Fold this sequence. Notes:
Blueprint: E1 2-6, H1 10-21, E2 25-29, H2 33-40, H3 51-60, E3 64-67, H4 70-74, E4 79-82, H5 98-110, E5 116-119, H6 127-138, E6 145-148, H7 158-163, E7 168-172, H8 175-184, H9 186-190, E8 195-198, H10 200-231, H11 235-243, H12 264-277, H13 283-306, E9 315-319, H14 335-344, E10 348-352, H15 357-360, E11 369-370, H16 374-378, E12 383-386, H17 391-394, H18 398-404, E13 409-412, H19 419-424, E14 428-430
Parallel strand pairs: 1-2, 1-4, 2-3, 4-5, 5-6, 7-8, 9-10, 9-12, 10-11, 12-13, 13-14
Antiparallel strand pairs: 6-7
The structure holds uridine-5'-diphosphate-xylopyranose (UDX).
Amino acid sequence: MRIAMIGGGYVGLVSAACFAEFGVEVAVVEADPGRLASLHAGRMPIYEPGLDALVAGNVAAGRLSFTDDLTSALAGAEAVFIAVGTPSRRGDGHADLTYVYAAAEQVARALTHPAVIVTKSTVPVGTGRRIAAILRDVRPDLPCAVASNPEFLREGSAIADFMHPDRVVIGVEDEGAREVLRLLYRPLYLIETPIVFTNLETAELTKYAANSFLAMKVAFINEIADLAEKVGADVHDIARGIGLDGRIGRKFLHPGPGFGGSCFPKDTLALVRIAQDAGAPSRLIETVVAVNEARKAGMAGRVIAACGGSVRGKTIAVLGLTFKPETDDMRDSPAIPIVSRLIGDGARVQVYDPQGMDQARPMLPETVVYCQNALAAAEGAAALVVVTEWNEFRALDPARLAETMRGRAVIDLRNIFDPATMREAGFAYYGIGRPAGSQPGG
Ligand code: UDX
């Protein structure tokens, strides 16, 4: 089978490489010349573990190719996936569908045979119907079906998520199109992956509902963490105590500085707008959005409190900048408001992140000092803040840290260190959601 993937961004590239690994011939259409050149050179435009090898293997096997020529990519394609970006529209939080509709129109004009047009980008309810209308308008001569096939890939484990998903959701109403997609996903069908076939609107809304639910889970455990700190409880034991209930589940109950990334912030906001427009406001998700924003904004306050109420003139080490480990993605990372506030309050901020420093530079104040490793960032610091739970930080030797730093405050926003070990090493250690007394200011 041959398919075309419109967009060689995160979702498009991972999906294309994984479909190729399934044995499908995939042509990726990438309009950005810089990105296309780097793909041709075998350089991945994003950091995703295992992606470079997967792409290289499938390019070498002749199943995966990159081009800016839509017509050649569409030749013989039974399905055309639209995986272009849908950024939050400035001002109102709606997903910006300009690129999606433009891609649909270009595909409609260039097609010489009927194909299934599939949205992989996360798109608001009703987008699939509008794409169907565009196809009918532009090419009344060509009967193309439309399908919605949302992705549920986590950055950092996207390949495993694609190859072994909990489920695949496909919104499609045309029998022939359904067969094409069933065939495409046959390797997953063989490993008994549940495939939910439904209508377009349901598939579109399922994606927003999934991400909003997970975001709500994170916001919930963060709120319980705050409460645990006040009453002398341990949030990790609570997470285990509730997570072992199969109805709740253990995942996504890790407290932290608030969720970030390319999906949760954007998708929760989009769901809020969709729900308002539909006359069925989602008060729960509205609150999740507000609570998470406030949390990210408030995290610097913990550092300031741990430094005795002021960071002016002090050196603060920040370990981890990306919104989570195993990615170089800085989008909506809690590090942005934390570092900005500390600098604004007069601190000298020394940062280190294993992958995200290039992405971070344009998003953080110019005076941030970028360091070669965690210990270099800790050099002379009054306080050390863990923002992202990269594994290499877990292995830091407390004694070395203590020698390197000038002060003794450690604010561990991901609870990667053992509180007892850190206190034994002489640190004033502050975690998240652990018994009161260990928190700055109280
Ligand atoms: C998410 C969804 O998981 C994925 O299914 C979807 O398609 C895209 O969005 P991703 O954004 O890559 O994936 O990251 P994820 O691992 O879900 O984490 C999102 C944010 O929540 C991160 O900032 C993370 O640090 C935070 N988080 C997650 C927590 O604070 N605690 C948790 O227990 C889990």
